[in-house]
Amino acid sequence: MSMIEFHDVQKYYGQFHALKDINLEIDEGETVVLIGPSGSGKSTLVRTVNGLESIQNGSLIVNNQDLSSPKTDVNRLRTDVGMVFQHFYLYANKTVLENVMLAPRIVSHIPEDENRQRALSLLKMVGLESKAANMPSQISGGQQQRVAIARSLAMRPKLLLFDEPTSALDPEMIDDVLQVIKKITSDSAMTSLIVTHEMGFAKEVANRVIFMDDGRVVEDDDKTEFFRQPKTERAQQFLSKIITH
């Protein structure tokens, strides 16, 4: 069953055509990695999935809700769609634990004890239970990103979006975050859509790889086939540069 469906989707910023003729289906439980050069439309595509960016033409169905319809309650949709950004956007005036507990408290009205236990278990999963009482400024960037992942999971989303989750991190912090994402994608039936420049990570975690360039889906294939022998010359060029630099 499809979790995401793009049908002839077009996205413009003024005269700039950011997404061109996007046709994609992503099934429930799939882990799909989006790769491609900077400016190819990857982040824009991901941001349309939870309504952070609107589309101008075509239709986009997410969890059986039509984002191209003005009748769709985007805020309701977002309760089922978690998102992890390049930057962490934690509340600086709240503890790590409070950051994770906030959305379930406000949106879902979960009983406080249940909410606290759920938040602590998520922090334990990302290796940060001992930092629950810390303020975000007291932990590293990599740890803040792991808190942001725990916060996204706190609402029990059906779909989790990652927009270059390691691009703002120091190199030595990247692996801890990638290991957490690998654990999430391997241990749950959640659907994940991940924008990344980490090719080794993409090889490990993906079911499918989507290669984008100039606002288009150039290639969409099983990860083994894609990394062994891309079908398009543009994808071959991209991979050869990634591998040799």
From TrEMBL:
Topology within the bilayer: Peripheral membrane protein
PROSITE patterns, per the entry: ABC_TRANSPORTER_1, ABC_TRANSPORTER_2
Source organism superkingdom: Bacteria
Pfam families: ABC_tran (PF00005)
A GO CC annotation given for this chain: plasma membrane
Keywords: Amino-acid transport, ATP-binding, Cell membrane, Membrane, Nucleotide-binding, Transport
Transport listed as a keyword: yes
SMART domains in UniProt: AAA
N-terminal signal peptide: none
GO molecular function: ABC-type amino acid transporter activity; ATP binding; ATP hydrolysis activity
Subcellular location: Cell membrane
InterPro entries cross-referenced by the UniProt entry: AAA+_ATPase (IPR003593), ABC_ATPase_HisP-typ (IPR030679), ABC_transporter-like_ATP-bd (IPR003439), ABC_transporter-like_CS (IPR017871), MetN_ABC_transporter-like (IPR050086), P-loop_NTPase (IPR027417)
Record carries keyword Methyltransferase: no
Residue stretches making up the ABC transporter domain: 4-239
Record-stated family: Belongs to the ABC transporter superfamily.
Protein name in the entry: ABC superfamily ATP binding cassette transporter, ABC protein
Biological source species: Bombilactobacillus mellifer
Lineage: Bacteria, Bacillati, Bacillota, Bacilli, Lactobacillales
